[in-house]
Write a structure and sequence with these properties.
Blueprint (H helix, E strand, L loop, with lengths): L6 H7 L3 H23 L11 H24 L9 H20 L11 H5 L15 H25 L5 H19 L11 E2 L3 E2 L2 E2 L3 H27 L1 H18 L4 H27 L1 E2 L6 H14 L5 H20 L4 H15 L3 H14 L1
Helix pairs in contact: 2-8, 3-8, 3-10, 3-11, 3-12, 4-6, 4-10, 6-10, 8-9, 8-10, 11-12, 11-14
Length: about 375
């Protein structure tokens, strides 16, 4: 009888040697070199890393987590979601509620209520705001609310065998409906302006260099965890069944597997990872509003995955960095034409790079070996 391999060992073996080396280099840069260059070197030093770079880097790291989460369902399960922005925003709103409560009497109106509630003449906190002054309860909300929405939505969609373009359309409708709901002032989420003007997190000033570096490092750690978890799942029996469902769902059902639970699990997990990314994103950027739920944002997530390379895990990370760094430059240099550049990138990748940037590397390696 074959000896069972312990779970911990299988988890460590899930990533190849070159993958661990790449993760180690990434950890060295994001957890050691960049923080030291930001905190230890003076502002005038040529190697000093500015607040802007740390904030931008932290934001893109959060986007990269979302891209990997999207790749898990699109690249390996064949489920194209155009509504993942809603899970990202829900995680941001859930943690934003804690950040708003942490402002306390330091707000504009010196009230225990968030400033926007005082402005709208609210007399008391709504029931769903109760307990949000506690960090641990905020973390529970970040994980639970998006997971519950994803599970309920996914259960009925997958049980009805909705897939392909029809599934993409209803996910886009879901995120658009959520955006319209959060735009309303009476819902208690800040309306059009959302949440902003955060002061503290766990008692520490949110604008302090040490806090910014800590949030940046946590985002990097979460990205590394997401990559290793994704690699483990895809390399396991679960991942093999998942890719079989993507390629031939009817055959998988014929041999006795129920695709519903496989698709539902990876869909819910992907939603939770997006929510955690949203929770890390909000304190670094300093604002969360309903525009994060716009259908255009969810489409942009799919573009990151397509540009980097769908079904590769590392490709979406590359795509998220490439597209968002380009966006940062183009929005400053050509603010009126950024959307045209984004559309052009997507069209060119679709026509000439169907396997994304990672596909170029694979072809180069293949040619070198031959």
């Amino acid at each position: 009888m074959a000896q069972r391999i312990p779970f911990t060992l299988r988890f460590l073996q899930a990533t190849s040697k070159s993958g661990w080396i790449a993760l180690g280099v990434f950890a060295l840069i994001t957890l050691v070199l960049l923080p030291l260059a930001h905190l230890a070197l003076p502002a005038g030093h040529p190697l000093h890393v500015s607040d802007y770079v740390i904030t931008l880097g932290g934001k893109i790291l959060c986007y990269a987590i979302v891209a990997v989460a999207m790749d898990m369902i699109w690249g390996f399960a064949g489920i194209l979601s155009l509504g993942h922005g809603v899970f990202f925003a829900l995680g941001g709103y859930a943690f934003g509620m804690y950040l708003m409560r942490s402002i306390g009497l330091d707000g504009v109106y010196h009230s225990n209520l968030p400033d926007f509630m005082v402005f709208l003449d609210w007399k008391a906190l709504p029931w769903y705001w109760q307990g949000t002054q506690y960090f641990l309860w905020a973390v529970v909300l970040v994980l639970l609310v998006p997971a519950l929405l994803a599970f309920v939505f996914g259960y009925f969609a997958f049980r009805s065998r909705i897939k392909g373009v029809y599934f993409s359309i209803i996910t886009q409708a879901m995120t658009y409906a959520a955006m319209l709901y959060f735009f309303r002032n009476e819902t208690g989420f800040g309306g059009n302006n959302g949440f902003t003007d955060f002061k503290r997190i766990l008692g520490y000033s949110i604008s302090a260099p040490g806090t910014r570096v800590t949030l940046f490092a946590l985002s990097a750690l979460m990205l590394m965890f997401t990559l290793v978890l994704g690699r483990y799942l895809i390399g396991s029996k679960f991942g093999r069944v998942l890719t079989a469902i993507r390629d031939a769902e009817s055959r998988v059902m014929f041999i006795g597997y129920n695709p519903l639970w496989y698709k539902l699990f990876v869909w819910t997990l992907s939603a939770v990872l997006c929510a955690v990314a949203g929770a890390l994103y909000v304190p670094q950027v300093g604002i969360i509003n309903p525009s994060e739920m716009s259908p255009a944002n969810s489409i942009e997530i799919a573009i990151w995955v397509a540009v980097g390379g769908r079904g590769t895990l590392i490709g979406p990370v590359i795509g998220a960095f490439l597209v968002n760094l380009s966006k940062s430059w183009f929005t400053m240099a050509f603010p009126e034409y950024w959307l045209f550049f984004l559309g052009l990138i997507f069209v060119l990748v679709t026509l000439f790079l169907p396997q994304g940037v990672v596909g170029i590397w694979r072809r180069m390696r293949g040619q070198a070996k031959s």
